[in-house]
Amino acid sequence: MTMADEGGYLLDNQQSEAGVRFDALATLFNPATFRHIEALGIAAGWRCWEVGAGGPTVPAWLAGRVGPAGRVLATDIDVTWMSASSGYEVRRHDVGAEPAPEGGFDLVHARLVLVHVPQRTAALAAMVAALRPGGWLLLEEADPMLQPLACPDESGPAQRLANKLKHNFRTLMARRGVDLSYGRTLPRLLRGAGLAQIGADAYFPVGGVACDLLERATVAQIRDRLVAAGLATNEEIDQHLANVTAGLLDVATSPMVSAWGRKPA
Ligand SMILES: C[S@@+](CC[C@H](N)C(=O)[O-])C[C@H]1O[C@@H](n2cnc3c(N)ncnc32)[C@H](O)[C@@H]1O
Prior knowledge:
Elements: H1 17-39, E1 47-51, H2 57-66, E2 71-76, E3 89-92, E4 105-111, H3 120-129, E5 131-142, H4 157-175, H5 186-192, E6 196-203, H6 209-228, H7 234-245, E7 256-262
Parallel strand pairs: 1-2, 1-4, 2-3, 4-5
Antiparallel strand pairs: 5-7, 6-7
Residues 9, 11, 13, 22, 25, 52-55, 76-78, 94-96, 111-113, 116-117 line the site of S-adenosylmethionine.
């Protein structure tokens, strides 16, 4: 997996900024994720598949909730940031290209994964196939085009620069095959996959320390690609990072659409 423009996951887990990004994503989105999973009725003994887990926080929380009678399998194309000694299984697995693991899962969850997977239709089918009858699928994906701004309050040049860079980052992602309007499609896709009891909501933070950390780590990770593609200059990126560090901006994220559905018994 590389940062080459020919394809692949743009925000490579091998880069040192990936750990910062996973921590920030956990701070920003774990409370909503855990609320959704609680509402689905997670209990001791459940079997869970965490797809594209990235960091350890979600599988570790799941392992705590299902206890020793349950099972948590955490998969990713790059498992660098997870440790199998933490009460859950870790496996390298490409959800778009490989068959689903055996298991008859009570819960399959993926957050911010499918939007990066070119074979996302096959990936969704694999996740549905992995559910036991009565099991739940929870998908959480960004929808950058629902709210495309880094700074919705564009009150000056620092905010305008942030929004310009965010716009150009979207251009880079779209060229890589990222579907920038994917989040909103989740309820329809779950219904089309034959799931029942469909529900969905959306959430995004509008500023704060974790948003700043995520922004700095993300921009640092894609800096070379933005410059190489002529989508930003090093001077613009330096200025933006200085603005974020100085606390001048209220940096928002894209809306996260969470959608859930149940495999008919
Ligand atoms: C934006 S990160 C999200 C990580 C984590 N789910 C979270 O919300 O914090 C996307 C993750 O998806 C993984 N990923 C990308 N393509 C994948 C694929 N085809 N199969 C499995 N995981 C994939 C990446 O390696 C990365 O860890």
